Amino acid sequence: LDMSGIERDDPIKDYEKIRQELSSYGASLEERPEIIVGTKTDLPQCAENVEKAKAFFSREGRIFMAISSVTGDGVDSLLYETAALVAQARRAIVPKAKKAVKVYKLRESEEPGIERTGKAWKVTGAKIERIVRMTDLLNEEAIDHLRLRLERLGVDERLEKAGAVEVASSVNGQIMPPVMGAAAFLMVEYIGISYVEVIKHAFLPALISYIALVYIVHLEAVKAGMTGLQSSNPPRPFVRKMIGFLTGLILLMALSFGVYYGLGWLKPILGDNALLVISLALAVVYVGLLWLGSRYPALEMDDPDSPVLTLPQTRPTVLSGLHFILPVVVLIWCLMVERLSPGLSAFWATVLMIFIILTQRPLSAMFRGSSKLGSDIYHGLDDLWQGLVTGARNMIGIGIATATAGIIVGAVSQTGVGLVLADLVEILSMGNLMLMLILTAVLSLILGMGLPTTANYIVVSALLAPVIVTLGQQNGLIVPLIAVHLFVFYFGIMADVTPPVGLASFAAAAVSGGDPIRTGFQAFYYSLRTAALPFLFIFNTDLLLIDVSFAHGVLIFIVATVAMLIFAAGTQGWLIVKSRWYESVLLLLVAFTLFRPGFWMDLAHDPYQSVPPAQIAQALDRVDEGSNLRMQIRGLDAIGEPRTFYLLVPVPDGANGEERLQELGLELIQDGDRTLVDLVTYGSLAADLGFDFDQEIVEILAPVDRWAKEWMWIPGLLVFVLIIGLQWSRRRPSEPATLPGGSAHV
């Protein structure tokens, strides 16, 4: 009871109201022992209420204790009194254990089913239900025995897997464009490329990671013998489904092209009136979508306590909320077509969202013929207010975290701790490139612990991205800056999964009822595909769609998706049936081959030919325009320390090697057998690349003609077909196929 009198004047009336509510909830609650606790008793104005309460409850024969959470007065006494009453109540209601408990040994049956019902999880299964029926639920030993039996049946493991899926999907949401937890907007500033390029490079890895997570859930469902919910849609032949899907896709593409080119044609004609006309057209589309959704009954809130037996119908569900996609369309349009700043784009999307929140209820009710204008407007205003309050509260944590992370970034830039980290990784990795990347990934996990997405990216990009760039150049690893930033960002985000911090794992365990630490380990196991991706796109930047054509990009998407599904099957130990250990190893090898075909091609044929530095003009003359030379450079760093590093030099336009060298802006001299940089033209390509006076060119590596690395996909796919054949021969005739897209399981 609040003794301060700030919210209510009379704590006795509060007590009587609580007793009345308990009585109406269940008569047996009135018989339970109780302790009345008065709080905030350290405040001066509480003395009168405390004395009044002591006198009242003393007459009633009830226990009253006054405590203060500020000073700690009375807290220990309250704990002791509570423990005594709990022990007394337990002895009163729990009978003594029976002398003999008969244990029924049941034959093994199917795994238990785990189903979410409201705020709890429902465990079903014939064996589970029989065990519960035979358990004396008033006996402590019997309940403990039941708990052990449920653990042996794998109920705990299933709950942890349910929570792990939630963790893995939430982490994937942080790496999926267009927002990426606001990190995408920071990458624009930090890397110096456009927002469209950030989205293009980050999209494919995030998409295939999501597809693999869906497939992992599918495999877990297959292994558990689970089936999907019954669809409430009218049955349709597969051909009609495909025709409907393709028709919708073609219409959407045609609409997108029409809007894109139509607005591009109208904006110059309309001039200053373009914004007004586009706003009116958007309002017409919004009203039309509301009218389309109003042709179906309004969706009702689900009862959280009732089980879900069938899936809702697709058409009414989609059409009833289709207008909510308009702010997302406006956001993406402003960012990727109009090329507005992220802040201005978010502003226009938010303005449209506010308009929708205020008007959707009155308009939908009017179209359905059941309008209550005053009530609908009030509910719209209330929705807007609640949204603004929630948004402001969420931004508090982000703002504080970003400001705090700014302190770390400032400390790094002023103290040079980043150089110390680079030295630490260099010493521990001993020049090994893969070990350097692994150490950087571990440090990203450590630095990202407990940080929200935005602050996470700021910290890991400031501290660890320069480490990969610096040490990579020294060891011949030259990758685009976006690949480096995505590498550290992925592992910084993985800190939300990995124990012991794993904030996302703790949150998911609270929902699923599983153990947080084991949920975290299971989630990390599910997220192995996300942890493998950064290593893959560091060595194969095609996965980031860097310098690839549209057709090549489509091919990479298809092959990368297949590779990620094969990787998921290998880590889960299941493809069509349970995989044998060597089949899982081969599946992982196939996935690696599809992701990184250049590894095997490099073993078969060296991709570069060493050219003496004195013959740089001949090397530039032999290679094609637009290709790259790799040059090993020896010189001094910014503080005068000697260092050796690699530069990737694009071959400029020119009729011969001498012209290309001149176009590069580089003049060289020979000092004995050494080739030194004599002059770097200001503002030239060589100056931008980092060439400087008196640097020595140690080695030049020129690309050679060889087979395309994609030829290595063929043996990898042949091995995959062989594994399918082996598992298909072990498949029982009654079992459904479990390849992606070939199963009725969900």
Automatic annotation (TrEMBL):
Keyword flag GTP-binding: yes
Cofactor(s) the record lists: Mg(2+)
OBG-type G domain boundaries: 1-87
Domain (OCT): residue spans on this chain: 93-189
UniProt keyword Transferase present: no
Keywords from the UniProt entry: GTP-binding, Membrane, Nucleotide-binding, Transmembrane, Transmembrane helix
Gene3D superfamilies with a match to the protein in the record: GTP-binding protein OBG, C-terminal domain, P-loop containing nucleotide triphosphate hydrolases
GO MF, one annotated term: GTP binding
Transmembrane segments: 175-196, 203-222, 242-263, 275-298, 318-337, 344-363, 395-421, 433-449, 455-472, 477-495, 543-569, 581-600, 711-729
Family annotation (NCBIfam families): Obg_CgtA_exten, TRAP_fused
The protein's name: TRAP C4-dicarboxylate transport system permease DctM subunit domain-containing protein
Native species: marine sediment metagenome
